[in-house]
């Protein structure tokens, strides 16, 4: 099954180059192109692409605002930010808004293809050119967007003191499923115990405890 992709890039030549590169990939299908934030929202509403490649510096709407709108309207669409900026604040801001990837424009076209494939399966992709300071887990923690809806529910209940059996009952899922979610949450967040999970959940507003 192919991965549907929409490209929102204000620079026409770069947009056309990206589209041409992606169309050469057998598992990727370009379903829309645009150069403004309003077009990003319109194309996403109409086409519901699997992936939206989004320039964060658009002429009409801030890229972060676009991400927030689309995550609310079309949560299944996964967003990858495209930018000239490599500052940690820009990277973290986009990830916190809901993007699942961040690629600098100086990257090779193959890197964009790699990012699309990783993000399409639920992974997080950061351009190696950003360096280790662009995504500092110690200071910020991973963005909440790395967790799925059910994982957030499990995390919130864990932070509020529920054990796995209680969570299974509250969410009407099996105990084994809860344990899988719990392992996945710890792996994605790089955390190792309930105390750390609780601190993270409070920081991200999943619980007020």
Protein architecture, described:
There is one protein chain. The protein is of the alpha/beta class and 209 residues long. The protein is 48% helix and 14% strand. It has helices at residues 12-23, 37-47, 63-73, 88-97, 109-120, 149-159, 164-171, 175-189, 194-203; strands spanning 3-8, 28-34, 51-55, 78-83, 101-104, 125-126. It has a six-stranded parallel sheet, sandwiched between helices. Helix 4 (88-97) links the parallel strand 4 and strand 5.
Which features would summarize this protein structure in a list?
209 residues, alpha/beta, Rossmann fold, Arc Repressor Mutant, subunit A, 6-stranded parallel sheet, elongated
Strand content: 5-15%
What name is given to the CATH topology of the largest domain?
Answer: Rossmann fold
| SS-derived structural category | alpha/beta
Give a quick account of the main beta sheet: strands, pairing sense, barrel closure: 6 strands, parallel
Arithmetic mean pLDDT? 86
End-to-end gap = 43 Å
Question: How does the SSE layout of this entry go?
Answer:
Blueprint: E1 3-8, H1 12-23, E2 28-34, H2 37-47, E3 51-55, H3 63-73, E4 78-83, H4 88-97, E5 101-104, H5 109-120, E6 125-126, H6 149-159, H7 164-171, H8 175-189, H9 194-203
Parallel strand pairs: 1-2, 1-3, 3-4, 4-5, 5-6
Helix pairs in contact: 2-3, 6-8, 6-9, 7-8
Summarize the structure.
The protein is an alpha/beta fold and 209 residues long. The protein folds into 2 domains: 3-134, Rossmann fold (3-Layer(aba) Sandwich), CATH 3.40.50; 147-203, Orthogonal Bundle (Arc Repressor Mutant, subunit A), CATH 1.10.10.10.
